[in-house]
Amino acid sequence: MFKSFEPNKIFAITSKAPKYVLFLFIVVLTIGLTEALILSPEDYKQSHAVRIMYVHVPSAWISLGIFSFLALFSVGSFIFKNKNFSLISKSLAPSGFVFNIIALVTGAIWGKPTWGTWWAWDARITSMLILALFYALYLLAWRIYGDKEQVIKITSIIAILGAVNVPITKFSVDWWNTLHQSASVNVLSNTSIHISMLIPLGIMTAAFTLFSLLIFLMKYNTELIKVKNKGLDRL
Amino acid sequence: MINELISMNGYGSYVWSAFSFTLISFASLYFVTMLQLSKEQTRFVSKFGSLNEEKARAARLQNINREILSNTSKI
Questions:
Q1: Shortest alpha-carbon distance between residue B52 and chain A (Å)
Q2: Per the CB < 8 Å rule, is A229 touching B41?
Q3: Which element (helix H / strand E) includes A55?
Q4: N or C: which end of chain B has fewer CB atoms below 10 A?
Q5: pLDDT of residue B54
Q6: CA atoms within 13 A of residue A218's CA, in its CB half-sphere
Q7: Is residue A46 situated within a structural domain?
Q8: Does B65 touch chain A (CB under 8 A)?
Q9: What are the b/e assignments for A31-57, b being 16+ CB within 10 Å?
Q10: Residue A141 counted as domain residue
């Protein structure tokens, strides 16, 4: 099954896809920004400060989602000894880390007008900070041990430990009393957010997903060419 | 209208700084990734160019090498 995803077979697609994804991202982002900054209504309580939600929430969702995939592929590369899986997880990390930082910074900016403080050591915010540390450790491990054999073992351990933090981050607002509000958008139960705000949130999430796909494809192509460069050295 | 959009009832500095930070982060990540990709592509092309005819022929047998070369013909 894994053979159909071999780099030699999919490079023809991954090398051409970025320009189409970039075009789609610019279109969706333009629509999303227009909706988020101009067309969507202000909140009766938070006024225009609510617009920060349109960058903060998708960033947090995507950083958590990317880490879940990263952990999955890391475990896969460790169990199946599949080098392609480790290249995929390595390529996912940079955009996940940047989305995590965006979620933390925009959360702090949103916190000041709504809570009166830039930072609070509550469960959600602290667990997001811990996730950023796991991302940083993961990227650092690749940088330090990149050429050594133990890199897959080390990065897999970091990814598995970090993956434990993902459900803690997600459910922290339900398990503990936090300053951070509980989830307004739920897949399995009622969503408390109004449709006029849900639409721009959905469009911005789509735009951010496209951006993470774009960075992933570019990074994956870079990693494949790096491997091929080493191959040329051995010829 | 424009003033209202900029000030946003006094929340403009928060909203615009959050959006600006996000977009600047996107642009930075995109350009850094792009730079790394084109650096590797350039390295590949120069390494490929230094191969002798026999080795170059052997390398060209792999689809992926041909794809990399076709994508970097503009560099």
A1: 10
A2: no
A3: helix A53-80
A4: N
A5: 72
A6: 24
A7: no
A8: yes
A9: bbbebbbeebeeeeeebbbbbbbbbbb
A10: yes
Chain B residues within 8 A of A11 when measuring between CB atoms: 63-64, 67-68
pLDDT given at position B71: 65
Q: Is A15 exposed, middle or buried (0-12, 13-18, 19+ CB in 10 A)?
A: buried
pTM (2 decimals)? 0.90
A130, A171, A192, B51, B55 from A176: Cα distances, Å: 17, 9, 20, 62, 63
Residue spans per domain, chain B: 2-70
Residue A92 lies in a domain: yes
Residues A200, A202, A208: CA angle, nearest 5 degrees = 100
Residue A107 with chain B: CB contacts under 8 Å: none
What phi and psi values does residue A132 have, to the nearest 5 degrees? -60, -40
C-beta of residue A4 within 8 angstroms of C-beta of residue B55: no
Structure tokens, A176: 């503990």
Is A114 within the bounds of a domain?
Answer: yes
pLDDT tier, A75 (very low <50, low <70, confident <90, very high otherwise): confident
Token pair 């903060």 in the structure block, residue: A56
Query: Complex ipTM, two decimals?
Result: 0.91
Domain that holds residue A107: 52-181+193-223
Predicted confidence (pLDDT) per residue in A105-122, tens digit: 999 999 999 999 999 898
